[in-house]
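Example A, followed by Example B.
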Amino acid sequence: MLAVNAVYFQNQPSLAEELYEAISNHFSHYLKKRNFEIELKKFESKAFDVISKAHEYNAKMEQVRDFVDLYYINDIHEDEKILTPFVDVIDEVLPDIEFILDSEEIASFPNPIRDIYLNAFDELYSTIVNAKFAISHKIAQAYADSKSDIKLLQDA
């Protein structure tokens, strides 16, 4: 009789097993969702840190770029003293940008997001290099102009 009952109940669904499976699936889903939310918060934190650095550097460089674009050199020696600190600011920022471009933080981002960040930082890097070039160009132009003015005065 026991053997017959065992075979008969073996094919019957077990409410305990179904309940256990449903609960474990629910907890598994909850834990996966919770882990995803934790990872998302970590990612958001990293992303916002990188974004805030980019905005900070971009604001500095826009101020430098705008100042240099509008700056008119009158006396080359005095104006060179005024423009040199801007080159120093640029020289401080460039290694930070290079470090961010090569950092593990950005490398750990998903591909589309990483590409957006890298493009933004490449553009920022380009802006910085162009601002530094503009300062050097203004100083060189002023030296060239001052030498030609002196030569013109000597000829007169």
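Example B, a separate protein, is given below in the same form.
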Amino acid sequence: MLNLIKMDIHRLFHTKSFKVAIIFSAILSFVGIAVVSGLLLIFQEMMKSPENAQALATFPLFGWLTNGVTLPEIVLTGFNVLSLMVSTVLTAIFINSEQETGYIKNIAGQLSNRGTMIVSKICTIAVINLVIFAIYTGISSLACMLFLQFVLKSGSLTPLLTTLAIKFLLYMAIDAIILFICTLTKSKALSVAIGVIFGIGISGFSYSILGNILNLVFKTTNINLSFFTPDGMNSILAINSEADIIIKAIIVAVIYIAGFMIASSLVIKKRDVR
């Protein structure tokens, strides 16, 4: 098992897609914070006019100018710049690459239990997300020091670490879905497309529409499908989330990770490897 994990991680580190993902993660997080800084500087100038100041009061980031912002809030703002898409797309490309190169055919025949391949893939996906999280956190913090000193205020790092740990679990849960789709369909195009759908938040609109339909059918307002999906919980989770949101996010993540790992294992055990 350990040797299989080492082989997968070694293969990951030597793929072009992984190197490109690292570069994209650095660029996206840096540019995202730089753009926010530019907007805030524009708002500062606009605030000199009372009429403009009143109009800007409804803008989500306007409070950063009036009340300041902590480093954890800035880092999580950087995380919102397509980090999930980088994770899901890289996962889809990496998992499908073994089908294209014949790697899975060579390895599967040597294993008494093919389910261990899924465990190895999950460990490799964990490495993918650890690298993405480290880059986004580091580059967002650097960009903050460069561009947002004029609004930065002190704050505890504990909420940031807690939120990132839960987001990590949710990213793993979403990637477990991608792993299952890759294993089931062997389709790179489909798995990448679904990764993009998760990554840019299109799935959230689907949950909202379906939830509204169910609310109309059952004549209620309490159905929110986002509470039952890892990408939905990821969009809800914030730096100041209540304990019940945190607990729900952890439960959802664990259920999806376990469920789709088991499903992927069953598929790969029953399938002839070609």
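On Example B: The mean pLDDT is 89.
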